[in-house]
Design goal:
The protein is of the alpha/beta class. The protein has helices spanning 2-7, 11-32, 39-59, 68-82, 106-118, 126-135, 153-166, 188-195, 216-234, 250-258, 292-308, and strands at residues 88-92, 94-95, 103-104, 122-123, 143-150, 170-174, 199-203, 240-242, 263-269, 281-285. It folds into two domains: 1-59, no CATH class; 68-308, TIM Barrel. The strands form two sheets. Strands 1, 4, 5, 6, 7, 8, 9 and 10 form an eight-stranded parallel beta sheet that branches. It has a two-stranded parallel ribbon with strand order 2-3. The structure holds zinc ion. Zinc ion binds at residues 149-150, 204, 208, 244. The site of zinc ion (ZN) has 5 residues, from strand 5.
Length: 314
């Protein structure tokens, strides 16, 4: 089913699918929340939401019907050009055939990387991202920062060869105490090898505890000691961290800055832009689903639309 979609992509069906899926989500939300609304108010908001969605979706519709793939590129291409600060940051975990949501199949991963490449996306590093966000340094057209959390061995086996072959950059956030000792995780020598070919290694703390549960002393240990361990093993400064499970608060963000990091990544959904807190940067997660690649295209195409409507940085 998935394979046949990849080959014979029907732009009209896809367009309908996207209206339906967004409408269903908004509708579902309104139904869940209806106890808070009087009926006429609910009706008014439902109509308003549908009008906004129809309008927003219409603006993304391919005028020449050349396919949604092109529409995806156009919408993604327009957004960074109209607002140079809107940057897509993808978040992966495992690249394996385990068939769970955090494990994208290697074949799907390759499809997605080839999709990005053939649609004019350019991979960037966290240094590029921060130089743009803080100093306005220009980025290539359609920038994308590809990130992986946890430091799984399958990143080396199944993602790295594809990235290397296609000349794409990526960033892996590793849990320093898992390195080289824990089954299924990377080791430092593989990290050093990957760093020679466009992969940036960064911190995902010492042992992946949820940071909002920790005392200040424990937080300091997770932040400072993971940075130190990675710097010793890699031989250069390690400036970036992703919060385990995305859990953070402003106090943790402050401590992260104090520990010497230049930026930190969350799993808040959205593109990064000039309003983003560099110690709480948004990302767009990629999941294994019933139709992984279609959902991937939908996500990277519609994130700018959600942001236009202000459905994000609440
Ligand atoms: Zn993690």
């Amino acid at each position: 089913m998935e394979k046949s979609w990849q080959k014979t992509f029907d732009p009209a069906a896809s367009f309908r699918y996207n209206i339906e899926s967004i409408t269903m989500r908004v509708g579902g939300f309104l139904v869940q929340e209806r106890k808070h609304f009087k009926k006429p108010v609910l009706f008014f908001f439902a109509i308003l939401a549908l009008v906004l969605i129809a309008f927003g979706t219409y603006t993304l519709r391919p005028s020449n019907r050349a396919g949604m793939a092109q529409a995806a590129t156009e919408s993604a291409a327009q957004s960074p050009q109209q607002n140079a600060q809107s940057i897509l940051i993808l978040n992966y975990h495992k690249i394996d055939t385990l068939m769970h949501s955090l494990s994208v199949n290697p074949a799907d991963f390759r499809w997605q990387m080839e999709y990005l490449k053939s649609h004019g996306y350019n991979t960037i590093t966290p240094d590029d991202l921060i130089a743009n966000m803080e100093e306005g340094k220009p980025l290539p057209n359609n920038p994308v920062l590809i990130t992986f959390d946890d430091g799984y061995l399958d990143n080396y086996k199944n993602a790295y060869p594809v990235l290397k072959e296609l000349g794409m950059k990526a960033t892996i956030f590793v849990v320093t105490d898992f390195m080289g000792g824990k089954k299924g995780y990377l080791d430092w020598s593989k990290c050093r090898e990957m760093e020679k070919h466009g992969i940036t290694i960064a911190s995902h703390t010492v042992d992946h505890k949820s940071m909002t549960d920790l005392t200040d002393e424990q937080l300091k240990h997770e932040l400072v000691d993971s940075k130190k361990a990675a710097e010793e093993a890699l031989g250069h400064s390690v400036d970036y961290i992703a919060y385990p499970t995305g859990a953070y608060n402003l106090h943790i963000a402050d401590m992260t800055k104090e520990a010497g990091y230049k930026a930190a990544f969350t799993i808040k959904y959205g593109n990064a832009d000039k309003e983003s807190n560099v110690y709480a940067i948004e990302r767009v997660p990629v999941f294994h689903t019933e139709n992984t690649n279609r959902d991937f295209v939908e996500r990277i195409s519609y994130t700018p639309l959600f942001q236009q409507f202000g459905w994000k940085k609440s």
